[in-house]
Please model this.
Amino acid sequence: MRAFHELFRVMSRPAWAEIDLNAFQHNLQVVRRAAPTSRVVAIVKANGYGHGIICAAKALPDADAFGVASIDEAIQLREAGVKQRIVLLEGIFDADEMDLVVDHHLDLVLHNQTQIELLKNCTFISSTGVSSTIAPPTTITVWLKIDTGMHRLGVAPEETASVINQLQKLSFIKQPVILMTHLASADELDDLATVNQLECFNKTVCALDHSINQEKSIANSAAVLSWPESHVNWVRPGIMLYGISPFSGKVAGDFGLKPVMSVKSKLIEIRELVKGDTVGYGGQWVCDQNTRVGVIAFGYGDGYPRHAVNGTPVLLNNKKAPLIGRVSMDMMTIDLSGHKHANIGDKVELWGKNLPIEEVAQLSSTIAYELVCGITQRVKFVEN
Ligand SMILES: Cc1ncc(COP(=O)(O)O)c(C=O)c1O
Model:
């Protein structure tokens, strides 16, 4: 049995993602240093930005809360033993979810009147199976989202007072509710949009009775790093916890962040091509001289961006080599001209600790968020 297992390991396709658990901790410290008086909702939605939601949460035991996009993600965390607050960032999508919210002690974002009506009308099924409108024994923490200019989710600033008033009448909601907003352009420092959103939020909050007692939350990663006035009670960093820069044109190291995910594969073939030979689908790459070409066992079926341009670097034996030809489902090809001694079986880093993901994202006309979220299930995840 063991021999078979070892054989399987030897023969398995070399496409893996290394997850550096210590880097998570380090990146959380960067958040804490930037926003020392705020509590931290670590955003772990979308399967921990593709890193593994449980792995991310377990690697961040000091986070004060976790932010997720669905009840399924929240339950996964609870079942894995996560005790901290878990915030459903888009609230509930259906009245049926309320029992799960209560059972699993989840915090709810409320962002529109439909959700408020849903709360007003919801009935709870007690542990004995009896349905009632009586408040559950525990109160639910609500984060009321105000739309200060992103125009995606959130109640209008001028409706905030009336919504709070409605929520005060629901005995199962913990008072006062937490007030939050989300910034659309915190990563663009010259854009006045953030200044306007912060002003709108502050004005809205100040106009409320007893607003001094209300906790507030505004900042995503870009705001944690660049808009200190947005830090208030709770910050909500996502991408920076994974060791990725929220700003285009910058890399993790510029902010003292450490990349968590390193995506790796191996050379599985080396070809000696002659001038005029083409490489890959569509013959899109034509060798302008005799060229040594390496084939890597990683493609868009693993989550490498198909739109990566020729010249996008990979790291082979600690030296960059350029992508040539179209990325295919299972493979990609590189020019080995600068790698005379490369051999089949040599390891390749596609992004990670030694090759900034931000660089690959830019050359693929996308953002690093999409790359990490896009790593597919057949890639093996190795925690270290
Ligand atoms: C409501 C909310 N807060 C915080 C974040 C974290 O953003 P970032 O990953 O840019 O830090 C997100 C992510 O999209 C979000 O939707």
Q: What stands out?
A: The pocket of pyridoxal-5'-phosphate is lined by residues 43, 89, 182, 220-221, 236-239, 246 (CB under 6 Å).
